[in-house]
Amino acid sequence: MEIISVIPRGYCAGVVRAIRIARETVQKYPGQPVTMLGMIVHNRFVVEACRALGIQFVEDPAKTRLELLDEVKEGVVIFTAHGVSDAVRRKAEAKGLTVVDATCKDVTKTHELVRRHASSGDVIYIGKKRHPESEGTVSLSDRVHLVTSIEEAEELPPLENVLITCQTTLSLLDTAEIIAACRKKYPDAVIAEEICTATRIRQEAVMALENVDLLIVVGDRRSNNSGQLKAIGLSHGIPHALLIDSEEDLREEDIRGYERIAVTSGSSTPNLLTAGVIQALQHYAETGELVTKKISITQIL
Ligand code: SF4
User: Fold this and answer.
1) Which pTM was predicted?
2) CB 106 less than 6 A from any atom of ligand 1
3) Which domain holds residue 49?
């Protein structure tokens, strides 16, 4: 059995920055409640490690960021790397909260593009429903239209002066197909595909894999970019793919009999978790014995 560690993988610059901001905020405002509006990143280990630092979280997938803000009564509120709408910013300030913004600069760039264009035209925004990033971007203007599939693109009403853009963590392949469907309907539309470099190069590294019979993606099931890596592997000829949180989820029956196993991880996955999976697999390849460790939250941040 050969184990291939895919490069690049794991934390992107936006996630590293958000975690640094979270740590610094706790130190800067001692004695004040510090609340994260949503999950800092879609990874339960990172969330638990932040909780251990004293950060509180308000999170409910059924609620928007604007609604979640009702639950933050005082102190400091941190906006996550996914970004928020202008309405969320205004509401936080009106409540007298101290705002700390960890929005990734790639998301901010998309927001600026959308705001600029929506002042004179319509924006088709390709994204995921109920994802915090798409929620924040779509709420910037009434002229932003969320599209999640080719079918939805085909059902769009007549629009003027159209810009087509997208969420930063989408699949390169799926997005290209939806853009093509939009382009067919609005041939004069301007295209600004905004999948970020971190997402792009992690997906391209999976597409470049050859003769791999199992792809293991280390990442949280709620992490959009981790899920995309698994889907891209399967659509690029890798016959089997697993998405696991950490080495704690490795089962011998899931890895037995494979010749070449590639391991990657989403940009919200701590490198320690991926390294643990790779080590456990290498040990299994050498000895035939699967030994996994329990993850210690104290080592995550
Ligand atoms: S995945 Fe891309 S957009 Fe999201 S935080 Fe990382 S660099 Fe920023």
Assistant:
1) 0.94
2) yes
3) 13-103
Q: Do both 184 and 204 map to the same domain?
A: no
In the structure encoding, which two tokens stand for residue 1, read together? 């059995």
- Exactly one of 93, 133, 155, 204 is catalytic; which is it? 133
- Determine the atom of ligand 1 nearest the C-alpha atom of 169: 1
Chosen domain end from 80, 103, 126: 103
Quick: pLDDT tens for 121-151: 999 999 999 999 999 999 999 999 999 999 9
Q: CB count, 10 Å around CB of 181?
A: 18
CA distance 268 to 276: 16
Give yes or no for residue 104 CB within 6 A of ligand 1: yes
Helix boundaries (H) for the chain: 13-28, 44-52, 65-68, 86-94, 105-118, 132-138, 150-154, 172-185, 197-207, 224-235, 252-255, 271-287
CB of 140 shorter than 6 A to ligand 1: no
Q: What is the pLDDT of residue 93?
A: 97
268 Cα–ligand 1 center, Å: 9
- Which candidate, 236, 241, 296, 285, places its Cα nearest to that of 263? 241
Residue 72, φ and ψ in degrees, nearest 5: -100, 110
CATH of the domain at 32: 3.40.50.11270
Residue 240 has pLDDT above 90, yes or no: yes
Which of 88, 103, 118 terminates a domain? The answer is 103
- SS3 of 111, please? helix
For residue 246, the domain's CATH number is: 3.40.1010.20
- Among this protein's residues, is 133 annotated catalytic? yes
Residue 166 pLDDT greater than 90, yes or no: yes
% of the chain exceeding 90 in pLDDT: 97
96 and 132 within one domain: no
pLDDT single digits (tens) 222-238: 898 899 999 999 999 99
